[in-house]
Fold:
Amino acid sequence: MWRSLRSRVAPQGAISNDTNSQAEQGKVVDREALGRSRGGFGTKIHLAADSRCRPITTLTTAGQRHDSIVFEMVLDQVHVPRPGRGRTRCRPDGVSADKAYSSRGNRAYLRRRGIRATIPEKADQIAARHRRGTGGRPPSFDSEVYKDRNVVERAINKLRATRAVGTRYDKRDFVYRGTIDVASIRIWLRDPVLTHPRDTA
Structure:
């Protein structure tokens, strides 16, 4: 149950007055998680959510960054407490994601960790497999499990219900991430029931 927040969150206020921008020197700058893309100037929120539409981990990137670049980073931060004693669970049984995350690297990462992937293939990947002659073996995909991916959309909507998340007012990224954390805590306080580890994705 994973996806990034595709709608760009535009900041309010004046633009940066940094006169020594590293962007002009050809360096990648993502210090404040702000960037310009086709959707405008803003920020992307990437998250993992459980089956009850509650955010587990969140990350922010500049608006022009591709969704897939933080796939491993977000999953590496998943820590779900077990009922009673025992170490926290760091590996979900399965991950559902949209086509933006359909890459060899992401699928290999999930295989290494023993996580079941429910990710549809892109059309160009299917065509490339057929161009190789035999067509190759397509990755496994459970369409019934994929129907439950809507919990991520609902988790995003819950976060956006907090106006300061839906419309970024914070200039600094660490302040904005704190705003997202507070919104996530409110969601968990409204529904504090622990899910079974297998329900986490």
